[in-house]
């Protein structure tokens, strides 16, 4: 009985912590982009309540799927604020809220590792930025110096696909 109650309790704690952010970590500065591709981080409505008595399995990663930074390269020197363009191949970028096969959404992890473990809900805080409205670009402010950015893909309820769908790079932010 204790084991049966433990999993829903852990999931509930993860969802609560995932929804503790203000939802306005970044904003887009490119007015020519479509609304679907911008990061007007309104209250991220994708952190929805779910039935904790049932849990769908993490969808399989499609063959050949990958995520990548479209406009940034490892070791690049950049200015802040920084425009980040996110890309995905062989998997659809979709809004969070429901679990759909062959789809998910982006997260950017700043200076906190190269990925979140597979199946773990990606935290939502100042170093774990969520793009649950299917955004494909963001403007991120970084202090001068060296920073590690990880692009992490997750399913509709923010469970990470792990290192299979992540890319990490190091950037040098000039003063």
TrEMBL record:
Residue ranges constituting the DUF4399 domain according to the UniProt record: 84-174
Protein name according to UniProt: DUF4399 domain-containing protein
Listed Low complexity bias regions: 21-40
Organism whose genome encodes this protein: Ginsengibacter hankyongi
UniProt keyword Hydrolase present: no
One matching Pfam family: DUF4399
Region (Disordered): 21-46
Keywords assigned by UniProt, alphabetized: Signal
Secretion signal, residue range per the UniProt entry: 1-22
């Amino acid at each position: 009985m204790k084991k049966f109650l433990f999993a829903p309790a852990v999931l509930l704690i993860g969802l609560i912590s995932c929804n503790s952010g203000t939802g306005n970590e970044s904003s887009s500065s490119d007015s020519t982009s479509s609304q679907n591709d911008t990061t007007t981080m309104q209250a991220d409505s994708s952190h929805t309540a779910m039935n904790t008595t049932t849990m769908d399995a993490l969808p399989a990663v499609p063959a050949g799927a990958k995520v990548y930074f479209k406009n940034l390269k490892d070791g690049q020197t950049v200015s802040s604020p920084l425009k980040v363009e996110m890309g995905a191949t062989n998997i659809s970028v979709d809004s969070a809220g429901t679990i759909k096969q062959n789809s998910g959404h982006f997260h950017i992890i700043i200076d906190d590792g190269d990925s979140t473990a597979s199946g773990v809900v990606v935290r939502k805080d100042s170093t774990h930025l969520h793009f649950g409205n299917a955004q494909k670009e963001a403007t991120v402010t970084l202090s001068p110096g060296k920073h590690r950015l990880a692009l992490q893909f997750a399913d509709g309820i923010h469970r990470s696909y792990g290192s299979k769908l992540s890319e990490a790079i190091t950037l040098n932010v000039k003063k």
